[in-house]
Amino acid sequence: MKRYLILPLLFTCLNLLGNTFIELIDSDFRSTINRIANTDDIQKFIYNDYRFAVLTDKEQVRFFIISTDFSQIKGYQGTTTLGIIFHADLSVEKLEIISSQETRSYIRRLNSMGFSQRFINFKQGDEIETISSATMTSKAMIDSVNESIEIFRPIIEKWLLLEHTAE
Fold first, then answer.
1. Are the C-beta atoms of 49 and 32 separated by less than 8 Å?
2. Which of 90, 113, 146, 147 gives 20 to 30 Å between its CA and that of 52?
3. What angle do CA 41, 44, 48 make, to 5 degrees?
4. Among residues 54, 2, 44, which one has the least CA distance to residue 22?
5. Could you tell me how many helices (H) and strands (E) the chain has, helices first?
6. What percentage of the chain has pLDDT greater than the value 70?
7. Who's near 130: CB < 8 A, 6+ residues apart?
C-alpha cells in the first residue's frame, strides 16, 4: 500500500472508533512545546479532534494546549494563538503568545506590560485586568483561555480517570 494512503486510512479507522485517545507525534506541535515548556518528556494525544500534550517531567503531570485548537475568539484584528501549560487542576502555569493576527504594536504592548504573566495561577472565571489600547485583544485572550478550559476540562478529567484506572 502506498505511504500516502496509510495516514488517511488510519484517521478514518480512528474516527470510526470515536472517543478514544490516540497519540500522534507532530513535529511542529512538539517543537512548540519544547520551546515553551523546556521539556522533551512529552506525550501528545488527540481526543475528538482536540489535541493536547501531557508533560510528565519532575514527577508532576502538566498539560499543554494550543488555544486555537479549542477556541477561535477574535480580538481587534483576529485570533491570537496561545500556548498554555496547565497544572492538573487546570490552573495556568504558563501562557505564551505563539502567533497573532493583531498588529505587532499590539502584541509588543501586551508583552511589554507583562500581560501573559498575569495568567500565572489563573483559573477559569478569574478576573484579569485588560491592557489599555489593546483592550479587545487582551479581552479576547482572557475569553479564549476561559473557553479553552471549559472545553478541555471534561477531556482532561476523562484522561486522568483513564490514567488512574490503568495503574
1. no
2. 113
3. 160
4. 44
5. 4, 5
6. 80
7. 138, 139, 142
Cell of 98: 505563539
Indicate the pLDDT class of residue 75, thresholds 50, 70 and 90. Answer: confident
pTM here? Answer: 0.80
Q: Which segments within 12-152 are labelled E, that is strand? A: 42-47, 50-55, 62-66, 80-87, 92-100
Q: Over the stretch 78-129, which tens digit does the pLDDT of each residue have?
A: 899 999 999 999 999 999 999 888 888 878 888 888 999 999 999 998 999 9
C-alpha cell belonging to residue 118: 498575569
pLDDT at 40 over 90: no
